[in-house]
Amino acid sequence: MSATADRDPKDIVYVNGSFLPRAQARVSVEDRGFVFGDGVYEVLRAINGKLFAARFHNQRLERSLDGVRIALEGDHSPARFVEIGRQLLKENNLLKGQATLYMQVTRGATIRAHNFPPPDVAPTVYISVARFTPYTDLAESGASAITQPDLRWARCDLKTLNLLPNVLASQTAKERGAFEAMLIRDGVVTEGTKTNFFGVVNGSLRTHPCDSHILPGITRSVLRDLARDLKIELDETPIKVSEIPKLSELFLTGTTTDVMPIVKLDDKPVGKGRPGELTRKLQRVLAESLASGGD
Ligand code: PDD
Fold it and tell me: Atom 8 of ligand 1 has which residue's CA nearest to it?
């Protein structure tokens, strides 16, 4: 029923210039990612060895790095990370089937102090891949979600390692038997803990605009373009909590989620309590785009 990132004990990861077995990979206990959550990351999807929308993930990684003022030097650049990712897919026998690629950059390892380390401290770069099984059954039946307060900071547009509010809300969802928690800030739905969302209210497809309160999801943007090609208009006016009972369709989007219909929100059916027509249509076009390798 669930998507998994299966781990091979012999798998090869990349850390700071070296390809080595995961069990031998080491990062300092003084790493600022560990001590402060001081870093950024990306998650990409690979299908038969092809990284989906790699160009957009690169751009977002660069934007996140700029946003938190981590400068990469020498051999390291987001474009190079994608090459390393391809190498890892090969080394781990993941050129066939589905996989995820995780890349993380932190501000490096140094004596704990809040301000930035001296310029000679290099960022830590970690990249790994894992086999991935999509949520096929749940995507067919539809999943449930709950709402939770959005307790995150004011730069949710940066994909940083500071995920504690996401972790807590996600765990609450799991404990309540729900697939995802949809976050509420200032009376509107912003996004999920690891997904963006789209909803249909009075016949129009709505989502939260790309501002500093949400992550500009790659799947969200691919889907927006696919919807445009189908002449489906997208209204980026946030959905208010008071509009939730009017939702006739609701779905989540994300690299590891694709288009996931939400048929129950806070224990109440969404629309007819089954995946809606528009959801199904967009699910299909995203699946086609993924199968064809995207960009
Ligand atoms: N999360 N919103 C948040 C807060 C996310 O963390 C993610 C992705 C998304 C969807 O973005 P995209 O379509 O680019 O995957 C939206 C990744 C998958 C994760 O943290 O594992």
Answer: 194
